[in-house]
Design goal:
Layout: E1 2-4, H1 14-28, E2 33-35, H2 41-51, E3 56-61, E4 77-81, H3 84-93, E5 98-100, H4 105-119, E6 128-131, H5 133-144, H6 150-155, E7 156-159, H7 162-173
Parallel strand pairs: 1-5, 2-3, 3-4, 5-6, 6-7
Helix pairs in contact: 1-2, 1-7
């Protein structure tokens, strides 16, 4: 299962704690946690998975090498993609569902790409769970502006806690 979100949160921040719990819950269900492999949300989800005795796959991008400190230390496996598009596609292809925590442009790009793949009927019915309060406001605006088709709304779910996010994801894939 893929976990997307900002590379900025630190261990003392609520989003880091949420992502860490998501990783723990997914690993406890036997799933490999797949992330972009760097810090912040990606590190937290990987850390949670490892602490629960699970696996964490990080997919980084050579194009980001000069901007990042390198892969986080909690990965059990690391793959380096050439560019951002290749990285995003690898993250999507290796996952049955997606939990997306707050982020910035990269996170929005990943979410938009998921919706675009769904619209083109290339995603299957893989669920997307938006975890955290900012997503409620964002999704309300996107719906009000009629920027999504009904199909994208059917696969997109809101959650306020890691437990709720993982429960929704698992219900939709089983």
């Amino acid at each position: 299962m893929a976990v997307f979100g900002s590379s900025e949160p630190t261990e003392s921040e609520p989003d880091y704690a949420m992502a860490r719990r998501v990783g723990e819950l997914l690993a406890s269900e036997g799933y490999t946690v797949v992330t972009g492999g760097y810090g912040g949300i990606m590190e937290a989800a990987s850390r949670g998975a490892r602490e629960a005795g699970g696996r964490a796959l990080g997919i980084t991008a050579r194009a980001l090498t000069s901007m990042r400190a390198g892969p986080n230390p909690y990965l059990t496996r690391h793959i380096e993609a050439e560019g951002l598009f290749d990285r995003t596609r690898a993250l999507i292809d290796r996952s049955l569902g997606y939990i997306i925590l707050p982020g910035k442009a990269g996170t929005l790009a990943e979410l938009s790409f998921l919706w675009a793949l769904d619209r083109a009927r290339l995603l299957g019915k893989r669920p997307i769970v938006l975890l955290g309060e900012p997503w409620r406001r964002f999704l309300t605006q996107v719906i009000a502006l009629e920027m999504l088709d009904p199909g994208q709304l059917e696969i997109t779910h809101l959650a306020t806690t890691p437990e709720e996010a993982v429960a929704v994801l698992l219900k939709k894939i089983r």
